[in-house]
Amino acid sequence: MLKSMLATTTTVAATTLKNAGPRVYAYAQANPIRTAFAGASLVAVPLGGTAAVAAPALKLVGFGSAGPIGGSLAAWYQASYLGGYIAAGSLFSVLQAWGMTI
Q1: Runs of H (alpha helix) within the chain
Q2: Distance CA 50, CA 53 (A)
Q3: Of 29, 41, 71, 81, whose CB neighbour count within 10 A is largest?
Q4: Distances from the Cα of 30 to the Cα of 24, 44, 71, angstroms
């Protein structure tokens, strides 16, 4: 089951990034610190980052205890690419679940 979820999440992420490349690059140029923390959280959290590390990293990129934080990278990404539909098991849903529980 986990292998299937990871494969699906990877495929969705790759397709999204392929289609969103120029817009993601523009956001990264305009928001280098948030982008750096986003990259760090995407690596630290799934690889066993502790709650002490994961919670601030998730909050910095916008995954808060009540949902995406307005004006954050997470809110921008959701509004730009996901709209109101967040697929169960997607990377975004997993990060948001962690942000709401850590």
Answers
A1: 2-30, 32-44, 51-61, 73-77, 91-101
A2: 5
A3: 41
A4: 10, 23, 13
Residues 64 and 3: their CA atoms lie apart, in Å, by: 27
| CB 101, CB 72: distance < 8 Å | no
For residue 63, the enclosing domain spans: 2-101
Q: What percent of the chain has pLDDT over 90?
A: 5
The domain tally of the chain equals: 1
Strands (E) across 5-101 are located at 63-64, 67-68
State the virtual CA torsion across 21, 31, 80, 93 in degrees, nearest 10.
100
Based on its alpha-carbon atoms, the radius of gyration of the chain, rounded to whole angstroms, reads 13
pLDDT at 50: 63
Higher pLDDT: 43 or 92? It is 92
Contact 62, 83 (CB under 8 A): no
**What's the full length of the chain, in residues?**
102
